[in-house]
Amino acid sequence: MRISFRSGLAAAALAVAAAVSAPAEAGPTLDAVRKRGEVVCGVSTGIGGFSIADSSGRWTGLTTDFCRAVSAAVLGDAAKEKFVPLSPQQRFTALQSGEIDMLTTVATWTLTRDASLGLLYAGVYFYDGQGFLVPKSLGLKSALELDGASICTATGTTSELNLADYFRANGKKFTPVVFEAQNEARAAFFSGRCQAFSADMSYLSSVRASDAPNPDEWQILPEMISKEPLGPVVARNDLDWYTAVKWVMMALIEAEEKGITAANVDQMKDSQNPEIKRLLGTAGDMGQRLGLDPAWAYRAIKRVGNYGEIFERNVGPKTSLRMQRGANALWTQGGLMYAMPTR
Amino acid sequence: MSALAISPTRLARGRHDPAFRALATQLIVLAMLAGTVAFLAMNLAGNLEARSIRTGFGFLWQAAGFEIGQSLIAYGPSASFGRALLVGLLNTLVVASLGIVLSTLAGFVVGIASLSRNPLVSPLARLYVELIRNTPLLLQLYLWYAVLTQMLPAASAAPQLLPGVYLAKSGLHFPVLQHGAWLIPAAGLAGLIAWAGHGVWARRRAAQTGAPAKLWPGLLLLLLPLVAVALERAVSASFDMPHLTRFGFSGGGMITPELTALLIGLSLYNAAFVGEILRGGILSVGRGQLEAAAALGLSRGQTLRLVVIPQAMKVAVPPLASQYLNLAKNTSLAIAIGYPDLMSIGNTIINQTGQAVEVIAILMSLYLTLSLAISTFMNWYNARVALQGAS
Questions:
Q1: ipTM computed for the complex
Q2: Phi/psi of residue A198, nearest 5 degrees
């Protein structure tokens, strides 16, 4: 086929233009989000501190704040987001079918989910693990002292197995009382049927804050007997969207490391630190490389604060959940939160 | 033309031959059925393969890895999945068999009470039946479980009902024999044999002499070996007594509140139906029978025992059988209140292995076997009472 010089030139110009103005060639999800002017996030139906609707219907929590950060980074000042509450059985299907753009819930990152569901985990916003809730009156310091206790739990993917493994590895005995659903196990525990209730620490903290008759009478033991990393999940069909979501998480962690908060982010724009300048878009072309504009990270931080602020506001020691940073502290403070370099 | 060949006239007539048509239709339906089953099986196998989901029953011999709260046989996390299923089956059998006995006893009381002429007893029985029959069983199980776990005292404040017997949130704790425990079922069996032997002898004697057989010698024979063993054990053997530790009672035997709640719930629920079935059976006995019994000078109790109940059973047994089947299948609600029955353990195994098809096939065949065993027994019993009624 013969291509005329003029149409060839036009095509080349178009290609250059497309390469320069990145948004025009974004993936299907990112495009759809921009067109809609709204990010649709799937959230859990109600776990205090992580995603729960308050009395006025506004969603609050660590995972919903992450959704707001992504929305601010991608959509600019007119950022909007819609939260769709999903049960554990519905959540992956909703993402696969394109009903939601991103899953910001308490779904553990595992090989099976990452590799075989047509999805991608875009990072970790909470390092969780299975633990034990016990009455303070027992005076326990460690889960190893639970030798001979009855433990209420719900039948799940791995909670029973983790329990048996942990006690067997430590040469201790226990009696499981296994229920079909978490709320039945929880009710039996609070009625005094079991001495301990075993579930993910995030859930235990939430239960202690909102379901315990008096939160001060219950404690969570320090041992974590399994790894349950929770993070945002996106569909596999749009790697641009995946990369943007992944780097919003990085930016929130990086902001905490550099001491950038929602309150001081405007002053930080004048900082002479080259790393801060690149993150906030006052130098370099980091935003463009992601297919976003230069102020993407600035807006995310301005809206929800850095990772530490999100943690403290939703689940930290001063909230009703009273969680310590632990594994969720920055890597410089003995935790696992580590951002890849912004350069 | 050889004799073997089908004559052309017969072949031509074939389509209109009723016997041939009937056979052909059945063969076609059978082939279609077999084809559908084969297609479904191949489709399933293909899909499992495509998703690289493991298939086969090899997992039954692998270590289960999880703990079970109540087990009649030795079991630990290193035991196999097959053994875990066996533990669940035994737990289901415990609930089903005790539930059938208890609901029958309670149902008899309810059925007879609802026909009572006492102005208080009969409405109470009716109220019970209507209340129990018209609310969901699952709701009743939640209620009994909540009552048991909320109302009972904590282990530290548990009352001592008998020496070494405590009732607490964690269940009913009692002492068990440390060794020689096999003597108790052996004595029970010996008592049963003696009781049955005496029954045969007494019936023969009653047939010969006409004197009615007495009830108490049989009962005495039934209980004597048990009492003797219990006395002997109590003085010579040592007991494993429940004792209070930091987390409640340790040692001794225990009946969990889950089992108790499930038994109470299933028995009371089914007793309402059993009572209605018996009431129907009793009402089906003709008035003439009662008048004849009265004319013979039988007392009210004798009339009930010798005339009414045997004839009522003839009518009651078939619906009773299906009620027992319901009870056996309803034990699968156990998972809602944390009792480790077959269904609950099957669920856990599916979660661990991901082999849902195999585990559900095993569960279905086990429940089917259990139901068939119950209905075989009830058919045998039905044939027996029907024969007696006819003779």
A1: 0.70
A2: -115, 125
> Does pLDDT of A10 surpass 80?
no
Min Cα separation B289/chain A (Å): 53
Chain B contact present for A284, CB below 8 A = no
In sequence order, what DSSP letters do the residues of B105-140 get, joined into one string? HHHHHHHHHHT-S-TTHHHHHHHHHHHHHTS-HHHH
- Partner-chain contact A116 B51, CB within 8 Å: yes
**Residues on chain B touching A185 (C-beta within 8 angstroms):** 338
Neighbours of B47 (CB within 10 A): 10
Instruction: Say what angle helices A62-75 and A307-314 make with each other, to 10 degrees.
Output: 140
Q: Which residue has the higher pLDDT, B34 or B350?
A: B34
d(C-alpha A237, C-alpha A98), whole Å: 10
Identity of the residue in A156, A161, A178 whose CB atom sits nearest the CB atom of B338 = A178
The answer to whether domain A25-127+229-325 and domain A130-226 are alike in fold is yes
Q: How far apart are CA B72 and CA B154, in angstroms?
A: 25
Chain A residue numbers with beta carbons less than 8 Å from the beta carbon of B335 are 155, 178-180
Q: Which chain A residues contact residue B248 at CB under 8 A?
A: 150, 195
Backbone angles phi, psi at B360, to 5 degrees: -65, -35
B170: Cα separation from own chain's centroid: 25
This prediction's pTM: 0.72
Copy the structure tokens of residue B76.
């630990």
Superfamily holding A25-127+229-325: Periplasmic binding protein-like II (3.40.190.10)
DSSP B307: I
Q: Is B284 on the interface with A (CB under 8 A)?
A: no
For the domain bounded by A130-226, which CATH number is listed?
A: 3.40.190.10
Both tokens assigned to A242: 């995946």
Chain B contact for A150, CB < 8 A? yes
Contact between A161 and B149 using a beta-carbon 8 Å cutoff: no
Tens of pLDDT, residues B161-178: 877 788 888 888 887 776
Please report the residues numbered 176 through 195 in chain B whose beta carbons come closer than 8 angstroms to any beta carbon of chain A.
none
Rounded to whole angstroms, how far apart are CA atoms B259 and B345? 15
CA distance A233 to A235: 7
Residue A203: both structure tokens together: 């859930």
Mean pLDDT, rounded, of chain A: 88
Q: Measured between alpha carbons, how far is A173 from A175 in angstroms, rounded to an integer?
A: 7
C-alpha dist (Å) from residue A301 to A119, A235, A254, B6: 27, 25, 10, 91
C-alpha A213/C-alpha A251 separation (Å) is 39
CA neighbor of A235 nearest in space, from A42, A37, A36, A70 = A42
Closest by CA to B88, choosing from B331, B286, B261, is B331
Domains of chain B are: 81-178+238-390 (1.10.3720.10)
Domain boundaries, chain A: 25-127+229-325, 130-226
Taking an 8 Å cut-off on Cβ atoms, the answer to whether A184 and B154 are in contact is no
Indicate the DSSP class of residue A53. Answer: E
Query: Of the ranges A110-119, A248-257, B15-24, B175-184, which is most confident?
Result: A248-257
Q: Which of A116-125, A177-186, A247-256, B204-213 has the highest mean pLDDT?
A: A247-256
C-alpha dihedral, B170 to B171 to B174 to B178, nearest 10°: -70
CB < 8 Å to B344, chain A: 155, 178, 180
Closest C-alpha among B261, B149, B259 to residue A186? B149
Direct distance between the N- and C-terminal alpha carbons of chain A, in angstroms, rounded to an integer: 43
C-alpha torsion sign, points B15, B18, B20, B24: positive
Closest A-chain CA to B145: A188
Query: What mean pLDDT do residues A82-109 have?
Result: 88
